[in-house]
Automatic annotation (TrEMBL):
Organism: Sphingomonas naphthae
Signal peptide boundaries: 1-24
Protein name (Swiss-Prot/TrEMBL): UrcA family protein
Keyword list, A-Z: Signal
InterPro entries: UrcA_uranyl
Amino acid sequence: MFKTILVPLIAAPLFAAAAAPAFAATPVTEPTAVRVATADLDLASAAGKKTLAKRISSAVNAVCQAPTDYRDLTALQHSMDCKVRAETAAQVHLASILELRETQLAEAGSPAHGG
């Protein structure tokens, strides 16, 4: 039924390397949305849910990239915070989509709506 799920994510903080030193450590976050394909998945099955979880995790990792210098603890913390926010947002969005889908299926099977 659904071909993709739009997963709202918050981008990892971006550090402006060319900015003035006073602004170099100021993270800038920008909202990002990533489409995660679901057309080939049976979301009623455990295997389908597992595959979707992997796809969401990959999308989160793509948006919330780890810092190149792991000694930069501030950047590392921002990346980890981004991942937590993104995973939470994705799960909330997915739950609302699945709930809407179940409601639509229930209404389609209802004699009052079936005609």
